[in-house]
Design goal:
223 residues; alpha/beta; Rossmann fold; 7-stranded mixed sheet; 9 helices; globular
Length: 223
């Protein structure tokens, strides 16, 4: 583990650029800018976390690895999933994870952060303004009440299990042919979770720099 926590972020971005996920073409040309914005974002989370319980840690290294780099691990995959419309919803966004790190790295995509809790939605609006993210909108709403049929990709992390009822609500937000992209952990747990689903899915490994645990992106297509 790197001694300086923000150096950990810098080296994590470098590792993402070295893998074969396609992240290099998104990160490398703007690496300094991305590092600066993510550093600012981390400081905002740390400042507001005691009052809002945005993340379950007050350790900066864990915040960087388990939340920031974890959010960016499938960056290249997510970019490739967007064909035509580059509209993304982050459902149950909470602290803005994975939506804000992805929006920082993908300024040409339009992100909507959907969060039902008012104080957390307020934090998301504050973070958007502080970081100057013109490609981010914040929608204070429950998933079930958000306007349907708007997004080419709907992503969520630490949200809810993949069951038919949840998938129906999430697919409702997608355009025809859109994709759900769920951040998940161990493959065995994923396979148990999706065993009862009728919707075909793809389970893609997404190793996170400095994290010795399985991470996967589970992708499901709206027919």
């Amino acid at each position: 583990m790197v001694s300086d926590s923000f150096d950990l972020l810098s080296q994590g971005l470098a590792r993402l650029c070295r893998d074969d996920s396609g992240a290099e073409e998104l990160i490398a040309p703007r690496r300094d800018e991305i590092f600066s914005l993510l550093t600012q974002y981390i400081l905002e989370i740390e400042q507001n976390n005691p009052a809002l319980s945005l993340v379950g840690t007050d350790d900066r290294q864990k915040l960087i690895v388990r939340h920031i780099l974890d959010s960016l691990a499938p960056l290249g995959i997510i970019s490739r999933l967007l064909a035509g419309s580059r509209t993304i919803a982050d459902v149950g966004s909470g602290a803005g994870l994975p939506g804000i790190p992805l929006a920082v790295a993908m300024p040409d995509a339009a992100f909507t952060l959907i969060e039902r809790k008012g104080r957390r939605a307020g934090f998301l609006r504050h973070a958007r303004e502080t970081l100057g993210l013109a490609n981010v909108a914040v929608e204070e709403a429950e998933m079930e009440k958000a306007k349907s049929g708007r997004f080419a990709l709907v992503t969520f992390r630490a949200f809810r299990p993949l069951d038919p009822k949840i998938l129906k609500g999430l697919f409702r937000l997608c355009i025809d042919g859109g994709t759900l992209a769920a951040y998940k952990g161990r493959r065995e747990k994923i396979e148990a979770e999706i065993a009862a689903l009728e919707t075909p899915c793809e389970i893609i490994p997404c190793p996170v720099p400095f994290l010795d645990e399985q991470r996967h992106l589970v992708c499901l297509k709206k027919n």
